[in-house]
Amino acid sequence: MTDGAVVVMNPRSGGEKVARFGLVERAEAAGAQVRLTGPDQDPASLARAAIAEGATVLGVAGGDGTVAAVAAVAAEAQRPLVVIPAGTRNHFARDLGLNIANPASALAALDTGDVASIDLGWVGSRVFVNNVSFGAYADALLTPGYREAKARAFAEIAPGYLGGHEFVDAIVDTPQGPVEYPQVILVSNNPYRLSPPRRLGRPTLDSGLLGGIVLKRPAGALPPVLLPRLRRELRQGDAGQTDEGVITWTAPRITLHGAAARLPAGIDGEVVLLDLPIVCEIRPGALQVRVPRP
Known about the structure:
Elements: E1 5-9, H1 13-20, H2 23-29, E2 33-36, H3 43-52, E3 57-62, H4 64-77, E4 81-85, H5 91-95, E5 114-123, E6 126-128, E7 131-135, H6 136-141, H7 150-162, E8 171-174, E9 177-180, E10 184-189, E11 210-215, H8 226-235, E12 246-251, E13 253-257, E14 262-267, E15 270-275, E16 278-291
Parallel strand pairs: 1-2, 1-3, 3-4
Antiparallel strand pairs: 5-6, 5-16, 7-10, 7-14, 8-9, 8-13, 10-11, 11-12, 13-16, 14-15
């Protein structure tokens, strides 16, 4: 039985996976307490209350935004975190090697499991477990009804970016020098491997480095699909500037600055307005995660 474990669950994440997989009942059967998020109960507040009441292990079931909020509390309190993949994409859980098809299997780690120290990204006062994005994705998150109709939201945003008429109103510092008003900026907690497509993800979560990807504004028309373009460019060689204007690099800190007061950013799938200058940093080994033993 678990001792001192509290699991924060978002019942709306992933098309209500918490209910579909019976996660509340299974966690309680394992001896853990469960706290459900709601209109007046955000995941960070629930996690802090659990720590104040003596929780020795924090669990979180939900999407990457929920996971990031609880991870920040776990890191600050120096408590191990157990991730239950109950979101839609579960990028972080995938990179941890968890069984996405069976979220309940992660509950075994509440009692015992293998502990790993992994890095956390920070942008201002906010933690990100996956990435911070600026450009088309962040703008799509601001579109009314994005959660219910993601394809439609991207269809509304894409034409301006594809034609080079829309861009990130900032300058980002890269090893190739400052890039003004790029089309996309992606800063990730450890670098992504973009090729081959079937292995898209992060090979490690403890390199101590952020991954940076910048897509420069095109001089002419841009191919309509961005990710295959990135994969094609990255296959051509090591990180650096490519002929079509893709820059990739790693660094412990990545900075955006410019004349704009604020920028919309997608932080682990949650839209936030950030004040410039924006500084993204990584904190090596900041989080202890406990995963089920094979």
